[in-house]
Amino acid sequence: MNSAYSYDVHLPANMDPDKKYPAVLTLHGKGSNEKNMFGLVAPLADNFIIIGIRGNLPLGAGYQYYDLKSLGNPIREMFDEAVRELEAFIQYATEKYPIDPSKRYLLGFSQGAILSMTLALTMGNELKGIVSLNGYVPDFVKTEYPLRSVKDVSVFISHGEYDSVFPVRIGHETATYFKEQTPRLTFHLYPTDHGVSEENQFDFLNWLKQDAGLITTKE
């Protein structure tokens, strides 16, 4: 099985050959790349397999997973293909690396957050959880996609109070949507624009460690 995406993989330094590991697969924002995402999750590298997935469509000096008709309006055919290919990639990575299939997480920013939430809705409890940083769920996903239950999926959503790309009301709407779908929702606002603050990073790293059973209480 081949991958439709280029990717970076970081394996724990002292891996136990008989052990399966939790995994975080990162999805970057429009015009960025997989290396820019690693810094957000590098503190997890001793305990998680970290895979940064690069969008397969060049955009300036970076990449994207799909193109847009306009802001907030993905080209449907390209978006559908990205969702299919990313589902296949998750399976590919699980077969190739010693990943615990019951502890697979997606972490995405902006376009990557949009895809992470969509994949949670299409894959259901095939994922343990997602971290969505400054994104939204396209309306056509909510109304036209075959959705699966996410009641057992852990969801961390954060949004910038001063986000100039996706206004903060979108963060509230997205959280409200998921609150109706799962009791395992964590939602935070941060005093930022379209970005990730140190406080935001600290919170989702602790959330991931706690959800994966690596710590029992928040540090």
TrEMBL record:
Gene3D superfamilies hit by this protein: alpha/beta hydrolase
Gene Ontology MF, one: carboxylesterase activity
Class of enzymatic activity (EC top level): hydrolase
Domain (Phospholipase/carboxylesterase/thioesterase): residue spans on this chain: 18-199
Taxonomy, superkingdom: Bacteria
UniProt xrefs under Pfam families: Abhydrolase_2
InterPro entries membership: AB_hydrolase_fold, LYPA1-2/EST-like, PLipase/COase/thioEstase
Alphabetical UniProt keywords: Hydrolase
Family label: Belongs to the AB hydrolase superfamily. AB hydrolase 2 family.
Name listed for the protein in its UniProt record: Carboxylesterase 2
Organism: Paenibacillus allorhizoplanae
Lineage: Bacteria, Bacillati, Bacillota, Bacilli, Bacillales
